[in-house]
């Protein structure tokens, strides 16, 4: 056998993994240096080996980095190492792969590792049940050891904890002398997935009670007792072991993803029938930016885009992301104003192709994929004399719309659109395909109705309850020049609470009312009534409006038909524009709001930018679901512009204006969220807490991105 040596010589550089060899070992992180300064911690601060399974509990213990010197002469050592981009499976592979060649072992710590070989002489990629004989410097001391790898369950870890290697891996070993029947320590490296990749929690129990001479038996026990008395672990050794561990784990983590990829070429393949679009593909940006309704490019980029064809494709993508330490984002219609689905270090799943629907007219139910446009569904339902509270604009898909709640046509009467979701088919963060309803997976059902862009699953299909198409449908419009601002908003504020539920009364302020007139306010009353009496009652407040006489145009009630209705609304939401949007709920007195309404009128960007006042006055009782934040009046600012250079001019107007009014606000809708610019409550505190606890159960490793920001939980 060749004499072991430190570092690489010429032949070592001939391997294809030598490119990862880097002799520069970084200084230990500041928290490790602090831990060394503060050690030894009081004896007993780190649990003994007999309680090693405590590592499988979530969270952290009070001591994650440091060492203790125990009365029996043993030392307990703990080291926490953060490893961005690294997955637990990579470590699992590393322990099986490196042990048969010195020059593989040296990659890990070039300044301290000399040699490694498997006792069985084989070079298969496996470690559990095998003995690795290593030679390394721990501090200045050259040590030779036998690392006897064990199954984690032998060390007391539960099958539940170890079964999913994409969530956590436990590398467990007995440490002993390479040739004598003498063992003197244990080690456990728990590698668990965290948001940025993974973290390793290393534990060593050395010397003292952990010394065992020979096998079981009276003689072995006697000898062990004798050696234990003699063998007290020095403090220097404990310090050196801690430092060595922190150095080698950090060093290897820096290139582990690359060396893993090099040795596992199929690792990066997503096995799907649909298309996978990589950053290197020429149309990557075109596909990505093509998903955006709001044409502002936020600069964030997923690593890969998947257009799944089947549910199996979605499952494979979720599993791929998990195994690669990537997050998942989902896009259906791409109408998130904040481009919620564009995130770094992620795999983006495009659900636009899941746009099939099926209407069961006799049962008044439907199933629809998330890529179905609300207006598409609505047109189809009209043919069956049926109705669903779909959103007001073309292009918005039910995927994002229903998850955030859904403020749709006739929504004040039908309730939020998500109240008419009776079930969902979902691919979970575990890659399971499940149905969620009031009785099956009720936690997911609860979460999917209101969590919006913070949902932690991929919705594949919605099951919907339908309504009979209201028989009496009409719209009444009163247009006012901006000089009547005070009168118009005072009236709207005062009449608001008494406006019947069959009317979704709203007012649009813009600098080009009706696309032809100058700055003004358009008061619009869409009516969806089931009976003549309800219809007449719904119209009355517009007919009797005290400000009607000031209107430049006051239409009678007329029914433009659903297509014209959508077309009219779309004149305010043109495609291929840049948008800055923000919103708030309020019940503030009109006198408190008035100065801000005037400021909005003064500063409103050019048309078709607009300001929406929606009379909501919600139902006092809503079902128990994540959706939980609403108030009497909804105010939203929609700035938009065609020239990208105007982004600096108008991009922050909406968020800045809403920030000024924040003291009058009771939170925001997720429909028009601008959480990338401004945080505000979007669920009740209680429901956000509950949602986050469901997330912790369903997506403990944070596979799915949350909203851009969220309020701090008390
Ligand atoms: C022009 C316009 C008009 C609008 N009108 C209304 C309206 O009348 N009423 C109303 O309530 N809202 C309205 N909105 C807001 C709209 O409902 C939300 O932006 C909604 O999220 C858009 O859904 P989407 O599927 O088109 O968007 P996406 O951008 O695809 O989805 C938004 C987010 O929802 C999540 N998501 C989407 N699909 C899935 C899925 N299948 N599984 C898991 N998560 C998913 C993702 O986190 C995604 O980032 C409007 C928006 C625009 C741009």
UniProtKB/TrEMBL annotation:
<dbReference type="GO" id="GO:0046872">
    <property type="term" value="F:metal ion binding"/>
</dbReference>
<dbReference type="InterPro" id="IPR036318">
    <property type="entry name" value="FAD-bd_PCMH-like_sf"/>
</dbReference>
<keyword id="KW-0862">Zinc</keyword>
<dbReference type="InterPro" id="IPR016166">
    <property type="entry name" value="FAD-bd_PCMH"/>
</dbReference>
<dbReference type="Pfam" id="PF18089">
    <property type="entry name" value="DAPG_hydrolase"/>
</dbReference>
<dbReference type="InterPro" id="IPR006094">
    <property type="entry name" value="Oxid_FAD_bind_N"/>
</dbReference>
<dbReference type="InterPro" id="IPR006093">
    <property type="entry name" value="Oxy_OxRdtase_FAD_BS"/>
</dbReference>
<comment type="similarity">
    <text>Belongs to the oxygen-dependent FAD-linked oxidoreductase family.</text>
</comment>
<feature type="domain" description="FAD-binding PCMH-type">
    <location>
        <begin position="298"/>
        <end position="469"/>
    </location>
</feature>
<dbReference type="GO" id="GO:0071949">
    <property type="term" value="F:FAD binding"/>
</dbReference>
<keyword id="KW-0378">Hydrolase</keyword>
<dbReference type="GO" id="GO:0016491">
    <property type="term" value="F:oxidoreductase activity"/>
</dbReference>
<dbReference type="InterPro" id="IPR050416">
    <property type="entry name" value="FAD-linked_Oxidoreductase"/>
</dbReference>
<dbReference type="InterPro" id="IPR016169">
    <property type="entry name" value="FAD-bd_PCMH_sub2"/>
</dbReference>
<keyword id="KW-0479">Metal-binding</keyword>
<keyword id="KW-0560">Oxidoreductase</keyword>
<dbReference type="Pfam" id="PF01565">
    <property type="entry name" value="FAD_binding_4"/>
</dbReference>
<comment type="similarity">
    <text>Belongs to the DAPG/phloretin hydrolase family.</text>
</comment>
<dbReference type="InterPro" id="IPR016167">
    <property type="entry name" value="FAD-bd_PCMH_sub1"/>
</dbReference>
<keyword id="KW-0285">Flavoprotein</keyword>
<dbReference type="InterPro" id="IPR041526">
    <property type="entry name" value="DAPG_hydrolase"/>
</dbReference>
<dbReference type="GO" id="GO:0016787">
    <property type="term" value="F:hydrolase activity"/>
</dbReference>
<protein>
    <submittedName>
        <fullName>FAD-binding oxidoreductase</fullName>
    </submittedName>
</protein>
<keyword id="KW-0274">FAD</keyword>
């Amino acid at each position: 056998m060749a004499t072991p040596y430190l570092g690489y010589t010429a032949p070592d550089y001939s391997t294809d993994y030598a490119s990862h060899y880097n002799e520069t070992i970084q200084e230990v992180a500041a928290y490790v240096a602090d831990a060394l300064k503060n050690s030894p911690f009081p004896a007993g601060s780190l649990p003994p080996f007999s309680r090693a399974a405590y590592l499988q509990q979530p969270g952290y213990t009070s001591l994650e980095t440091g060492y203790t010197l125990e009365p029996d002469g043993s030392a307990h050592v703990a080291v926490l190492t953060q490893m961005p981009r690294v997955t637990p499976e990579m470590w699992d592979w590393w322990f099986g792969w490196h042990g048969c060649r010195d020059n593989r072992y040296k990659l890990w710590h070039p300044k301290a590792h000399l040699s490694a070989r498997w006792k069985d002489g084989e070079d298969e990629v496996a470690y559990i049940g095998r003995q690795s004989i290593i030679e390394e410097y721990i501090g200045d001391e050259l040590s030779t050891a036998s690392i006897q790898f064990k199954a984690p369950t032998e060390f007391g870890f539960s099958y539940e904890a170890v079964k999913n290697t994409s969530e956590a891996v436990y590398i467990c070993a007995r440490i002993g002398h390479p040739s004598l029947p003498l063992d003197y320590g244990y080690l456990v490296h728990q590698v668990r997935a965290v948001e940025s990749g993974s973290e390793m929690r290393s534990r060593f129990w050395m010397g003292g009670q952990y010394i065992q001479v020979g096998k079981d038996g009276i003689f072995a026990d006697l000898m062990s007792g004798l050696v234990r008395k003699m063998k007290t672990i020095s403090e220097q050794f404990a310090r050196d072991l801690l430092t060595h561990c922190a150095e080698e784990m950090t060093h290897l983590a820096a290139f582990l993803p690359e060396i893993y990829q090099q040795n596992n070429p199929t690792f990066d393949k997503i096995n799907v029938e649909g298309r996978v679009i990589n950053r290197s593909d020429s149309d990557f940006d075109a596909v990505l930016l093509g998903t955006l309704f709001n044409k502002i490019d936020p600069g964030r980029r997923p690593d890969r885009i998947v257009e799944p064809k089947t549910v199996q494709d979605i499952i494979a993508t979720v599993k791929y992301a998990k195994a690669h330490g990537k997050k998942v984002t989902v896009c259906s219609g791409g109408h998130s104003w904040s481009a919620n689905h564009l995130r770094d270090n992620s795999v983006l799943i495009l659900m636009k192709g899941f746009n099939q629907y099926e209407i069961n007219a006799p049962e008044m139910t439907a199933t629809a994929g998330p890529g179905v446009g609300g207006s598409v569904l609505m047109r189809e339902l009209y043919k069956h004399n049926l109705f669903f509270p779909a959103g007001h604009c073309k292009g918005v898909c039910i995927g994002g719309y229903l998850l955030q709640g859904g403020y749709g046509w006739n929504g004040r009467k039908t309730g939020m659109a998500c109240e008419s979701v009776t079930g969902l088919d979902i691919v979970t963060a575990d890659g399971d395909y499940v149905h969620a309803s009031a009785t099956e997976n009720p936690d997911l059902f609860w979460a999917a109705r209101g969590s919006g862009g913070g949902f932690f699953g991929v919705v594949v299909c919605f099951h919907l309850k339908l309504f009979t198409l209201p028989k009496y449908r009409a719209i009444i419009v009163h247009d006012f020049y901006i000089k009547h601002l005070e009168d118009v908003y005072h009236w709207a504020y005062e009449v608001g609470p008494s406006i019947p539920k069959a009317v979704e009364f709203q007012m649009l302020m813009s600098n080009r009312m009706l696309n032809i007139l100058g700055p003004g306010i358009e008061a619009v009353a869409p009516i969806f009534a089931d009976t003549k009496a309800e219809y007449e009652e719904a119209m009355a407040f517009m007919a009797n409006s005290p400000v009607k006489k000031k209107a430049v145009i006051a239409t009678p009630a007329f029914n433009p038909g659903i297509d014209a209705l959508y077309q009219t609304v779309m004149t305010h939401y043109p495609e291929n524009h840049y948008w800055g949007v923000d919103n708030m709920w309020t019940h503030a007195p009109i006198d408190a709001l008035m100065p801000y309404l005037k400021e909005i009128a003064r500063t409103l960007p050019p048309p078709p930018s607009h300001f929406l006042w929606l009379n909501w006055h919600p139902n006092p009782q809503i079902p128990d679901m994540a959706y939980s934040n609403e108030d009497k009046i909804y105010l939203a600012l929609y700035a938009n512009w065609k020239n990208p250079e105007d982004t600096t001019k108008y991009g922050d107007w909406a968020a800045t204006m809403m920030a000024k009014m924040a003291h009058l606000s009771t939170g925001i809708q997720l429909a028009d969220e601008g959480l990338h610019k401004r945080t505000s409550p979007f669920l009740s505190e209680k429901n956000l807490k509950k949602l986050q606890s469901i997330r912790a159960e369903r997506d403990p490793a944070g596979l799915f991105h949350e909203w851009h920001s969220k309020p701090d939980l008390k």
